[in-house]
Sequence to fold (270 residues):
Amino acid sequence: MSGDLRGGRRRRRADEERIDAAARSASRPEPASDAVLRLVGVSRVYGSGEQTVTALADVDLAVAPGELVAIMGASGSGKSTLLSIAGGLQQPTSGDVVVEQRALSALDAREMARLRRRSLGFVFQDFNLIPTLTAAENVALPLELDGAGSRSARRMAEAALDSVGLGPRADTYPDELSGGQQQRVAIARAVVGGRRLILADEPTGALDSVTGEAVMKMLRSRIDDGAAGLLVTHEARHAAWADRVVFLRDGRIIDESRRDGADELLRGVR
Ligand SMILES: Nc1ncnc2c1ncn2[C@@H]1O[C@H](COP(=O)(O)OP(=O)(O)OP(=O)(O)O)[C@@H](O)[C@H]1O
Ligand SMILES: [Mg+2]
Fold:
C-alpha cells in the first residue's frame, strides 16, 4: 500500500474522529453535577377540586454553564411558571429544583434569599428598574443588599454596565434611557457580581425588533462568559440565540431541539 494511500486513510480517520467529537459535543447533556440549574420531575398544580390547573407536569431539565436554553410554547403552557419555580419564587407541588448543587427545598427562607441575591438574576419584559436610582445604583443595589461596601458595589456595577456597553451612562436615570438601554441595565443587574443563573421572561417583549436583537446579543455574550440562562420567548429568531429550545404544551416538554455544532465542524474539515 502506498504511503499516500495510508496517509489519506489516516487523515480521513482523524477527520472522522473530529466529526464524532463534534457530534458528541452537539448532543451533550453536560453531566448533571455540572449543571447550574436542574429541575427533576417538577410539577405545579394550581387550585383544587374542579378548579385544578396543572401548569407544569413532570418537567426534567438541566442547564449547564455557558448554555442558554429557550422555552417556547403557547400562552398558558407553563413557561412563566417554570421560570419562577427555577428561581425559587414559588415552590413546585412535587419534584426538586437544584441550583448550583443546592436543592431549593432544603433551604430556609434566609438561605433562599441569599441564594437568590448571589446566584440568580431575573430579567423581565418590563425592565423593573427603580426610577429614582441611576443605572449604576440599580445595578449595585443587589450587591449592597448582600452586604457589599458601596465603593466595591459601585465598581462591580460599572464593570457590569461596561459589559453591556453602557459604562458611559452609569449616572443616568432610567427615564433618560431608551427601552433597549433600560433592558441592558437589567441584564447588567442580572449578572453583576458573577451571578451564575439568568432567568429571562420575554426580555425583548417590549422592544422593537432591532433593539430586541441587540439585547439578545448582550444576553448571549453574558452566557458565553459562563453563566447559565433560561429564556422564555415567543419569537423564533430570539430562540435562535439559544443552544437548545424546549417546547412546552400544557405544562409538559413535548419537544426539544439543539443547535447542531457538527455542521459547522464538518465545513471546517472539508
Ligand atoms: N397564580 C396562579 N393561579 C392559578 N392558575 C395559574 C396561576 N399562575 C398561572 N396559572 C395557570 O397556569 C397555567 C400556566 O401559566 P403560565 O403563566 O406559566 O403560562 P405562560 O406559558 O407563561 O403563558 P404566557 O405566554 O401567556 O405568559 C395557565 O393555565 C395559567 O392560567
Ligand atoms: Mg408567561
Q: What stands out?
A: The pocket of adenosine-5'-triphosphate (ligand 1) is lined by residues 46-47, 53, 55, 73, 75-81 (CB under 6 Å). The chain has one domain: 34-259. The first helix runs from residue 3 to 26.
